[in-house]
Amino acid sequence: MQAARGASLSPGDDHGPTATHTYVRLFVVVAALTLVVDQVTKVLAVEKLQGRESIELIPHVLSLSFLRNGGAALGTGAGFTLVLSVVAVAVSIAVARMATRLRDRWWAVGLGLLFAGAVGNLCDRIFREPAPFKGHVVDFIDYGVFVGNVADIALTVAAVVIVWRTWRGIGLDGTRQVKA
């Protein structure tokens, strides 16, 4: 069964309108749950960790350490908070538009995590100190090499899922690209 030139559907996959709604719902649930967990853990980090010493969970491997990050990954780009905010808005809009075409479970999970990660850190940049669109992201999960948060974990897992699906040749709509 051919879906398009160079693409084929996997046998038994449901690719009708109902399937799209199912995967869009999965995207929304993954994004919403991840965003809630991210925001709740950041509120708890501010309340419980700010101004305190690190709490070692696994010696020399994992601890809880409060940090306000004005930049991107590993504190890079600290002077570009407004630019990072604009990029996060653009990514969020693009991902939300892509989600309307979902017909693959793993793409739904990956894009849901990507959306939640981008919006989670964007919320910090918009609503946290020192000013709107200049706010610092709350990081508190200390891996010894860098400090991150739930949104960062979501972005990392999203990247892995998206690369995996792309490498396998599976599109958002569930079609598999046939290699020549």
Automatic annotation (TrEMBL):
Report membrane topology.
Multi-pass membrane protein
Localisation per UniProt entry? Cell membrane
Catalytic center residues: D139, D152
Return the InterPro entries for the record: Peptidase_A8 (IPR001872)
Q: Name one GO molecular function term.
A: aspartic-type endopeptidase activity
EC no. given is 3.4.23.36
Query: Which pathway does it operate in?
Result: Protein modification; lipoprotein biosynthesis (signal peptide cleavage)
Which keywords label this protein? Aspartyl protease, Cell membrane, Hydrolase, Membrane, Protease, Transmembrane, Transmembrane helix
Q: Does the keyword Transcription apply?
A: no
Q: Which residues cross the membrane?
A: 72-94, 106-123, 143-164
Biological process (GO) annotations?
proteolysis
List, alphabetically, the Pfam families matched.
Answer: Peptidase_A8 (PF01252)
Q: Which reaction does it catalyse?
A: Release of signal peptides from bacterial membrane prolipoproteins. Hydrolyzes -Xaa-Yaa-Zaa-|-(S,diacylglyceryl)Cys-, in which Xaa is hydrophobic (preferably Leu), and Yaa (Ala or Ser) and Zaa (Gly or Ala) have small, neutral side chains
Q: Which GO terms describe its cellular component?
A: plasma membrane
Free-text function comment from the UniProt entry? This protein specifically catalyzes the removal of signal peptides from prolipoproteins.
- Give the record's family classification: Belongs to the peptidase A8 family.
Under PANTHER family, the record lists: LIPOPROTEIN SIGNAL PEPTIDASE
Name of the protein described by the UniProt record: Lipoprotein signal peptidase
Q: Which organism is it from?
A: Aeromicrobium ginsengisoli
